[in-house]
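Researcher: Go.
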Amino acid sequence: MIDNEWDFETLAIRTGHVRTNEGEHSEAIFPTSSFVFRSAAEAAARFGGSEPGNIYARFTNPTVRYFEDRLAALEGGEACVATSTGMSAILAVMLGLLKAGDHVVCSRAVFGTTTLLLQNIVGKFGVAFSFVDLTDMAGWEAALQPNTRLLFVETPANPLTEIVDIRELADLAHRNGSLLVVDNCFCTPALQRPLELGADIVVHSATKYLDGQGRALGGAVVGDKQRVGKEVYGVLRNGGVSMSPFNAWIFLKGLETLSLRMRAHCDNALQLAQWLEAHPAIERVHYPGLASHPQHALARRQQSGFGGIVSFIVNGGQDAAWQVIDATQMLSITANLGDTKTTITHPATTTHGRLTPEQKVQAGIADGLVRVSVGLESIRDIQRDLARGLVVA
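Model: Structure:
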């Protein structure tokens, strides 16, 4: 049986592993900076590209390649480039596909650092950016220009779990001759496959759910052989935003349990969201699995699960939000997400803290907003821990 006949769960465990002569059952780690050639002619052929093979671990490493092959199979892409972090994956896409004079349309509903990366770093090199509301399709269309090269979205978005219709946005991008890039961090391919819905490129922070236990930093870009396999890969080879072999091995182990973990995250998150929505100290809950979520019907069509991120606004603003966070005894106060351990943070002063007040308002980042990445502990224990700081006025 070949890989493309396997189901998702099998692909996540079996794809990409090429055993060495030692016959190891688990994937091997190749912690080497370089590789030895049998002759000068072989070295020249590999450096010249006429012969495949390992050259230098910055851009060719077997363990990293195992991870790339596996994630590409799970996302349904032709090629994958693994990077040092999720932010370096986004940077590699921008550097690989854009040039001075190009224009990008980006959702306002993205990770705060993504906004700053585009504006303050990529923007210095002659690339223009427009920011629009994620769910406003008319706004997306109005923002398009003849030189618009990319549309960039997170869906579901951080931290309000807003959702855009990927197929509709992809069609809009393609009619303009543009590409659609989707950050699939919140769903992973276990719940959503943007390439099948028309997106051109998918980016990941492997640090999150792909690992699942908060052990290592990493990122990935998935797409076709030309744009990702050559243009984005060129940034990796020459720019060195490389994933380490050890981290790649960690992510390989994470992918093996991805499907099981994501289903469990979804189950816990839905129960928590329903409990919070009924709590009198809560003003509003953001979770795609709730009927009250504006894109609930779209989430049911586009995703096979609603994800593990629940955000809610506490009555009383920042003081009340901090009270909830500080009263927890089990939850981890950290801005990371996608962990088996439940994490909690205050987006307005952490993940989106460097945005201007105006940008926060535009992105819906209220002072009373709390984001919870729902882990795999007992849901009753998670609820009990949050209840400590939820005071009814």
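Model: The CA atoms of residues 263 and 305 lie 7 Å apart.
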